[in-house]
Amino acid sequence: MQNFTYHAHTNGQGIFDGRNTAEEMICRAEKLGFEELGISNHLIFHPNLKTVDKMFFNDFDVVSSVMQKNAEEIRRAADRAKIKVLVGFEVDFFPSSAWRLAFEKLQKTLRADYYIGSCHFLRNKEETKLVNMYLYREGDADFLPSELGTGLEIYWQNVALAAESGYFNFLAHLDVYKIFPYLQNLPEPESQSLAIDTVCRLKHPYELNTSGWRKCGEQHPALSFLQKFALAGVPVVISDDAHCTEHLAAGFEEAENLLASIDYNKRWRLIK
Ligand SMILES: [Zn+2]
Ligand SMILES: [Zn+2]
User: Fold this and answer.
1) What distance in angstroms lies between residue 53's CA and the mean position of ligand 2's atoms?
2) Quick check: bond before 145 cis, omega within 30?
3) How do the domains of the chain map onto residue ranges?
4) Which tens digit of pLDDT belongs to each residue from 58-105?
5) How far, in Å, CA of 193 to CA of 58, rounded?
6) Neighbours of 188 (CB within 10 A)
7) Can you give the pTM of this predicted structure?
8) Which pLDDT value is given to residue 141?
9) Whose atoms come closest to the Cα of 6: which ligand?
10) Measured in angstroms, how far is the CA atom of residue 41 from the centroid of ligand 1?
11) How far apart are CA 213 and CA 219, in angstroms?
């Protein structure tokens, strides 16, 4: 069974959405017999973002300083660990050149071990309206219910562009939106199959995220996607997306069984 995860969160600086400290997560990973633990707190930055959550940043200097502190905190905890501890970030990707320039600048200062490409936002093409899927409420003036279909269309375009960007070691929870009831009964956008084709063509690593089982009874991504990726030989890594110590390795056995049941044999691991 896979004995590592690269997708785990902490409560660092009272900002991030994990429930435990880096030390507590490391201690639990050691007890589970993990070889490696990658901590990947959220890096959510966009100049047009409303800072309605502690983890959302629209000021480059502020996000830069918070993320550097986060990396330092994890590296300090890693010094005392018995297992290999890595510093990663789960990054919300946006395709505009303004975002890319800022991210490239951040990469230089953070010197992280890896980056996970993620998308938790509904947005318009121009990136002037950015609504976090977790915070969306019906009647949100920035994103009317009639615009949700377009939101999903753009979501999958974002996935394809994130894969093509070359910024990320692997892509997170590809169909994350299915955990939200308000996004469940929309027609499948055309951009979905294009995004899946892009991931297949690039053989871009992605994760089988077990947190879906906790949230909506199905892993990310759905079985039909896993089957396509298996056929195309796209490397997969199992992630628990742990937000507390109890989540570490949760669902790993089921995930291994699922991959074995479709003869999935191309796995991904960070080589440093
Ligand atoms: Zn996520
Ligand atoms: Zn996560």
Assistant:
1) 16
2) no
3) 4-261
4) 999 999 999 999 999 999 999 999 999 999 999 999 999 999 999 999
5) 32
6) 10
7) 0.98
8) 84
9) 2
10) 9
11) 5
Q: Please tell me the number of the ligand nearest to residue 38's CA.
A: 2
Query: Distance, CA 223 to ligand 2 centroid (Å)?
Result: 20
Q: What is the pLDDT of residue 148?
A: 94
CA–centroid distance, 60 to ligand 2, in Å, is 22
Compute the distance from residue 8 Cα to the ligand 2 centre, in Å: 6
Domain 4-261 grouped into CATH 3.20.20.140 = yes
What average pLDDT score do residues 201-223 get? 97
| Tokens (6 digits) for 51 | 């800072």
Q: Where does residue 127 fall: left (phi above 0), alpha (psi -120 to 50 degrees), or beta otherwise? A: left
Give the burial class of 186: count Cβ atoms within 10 A of its Cβ; 0-12 exposed, 13-18 middle, 19 or more buried.
middle
Q: What is the pLDDT of residue 272?
A: 66
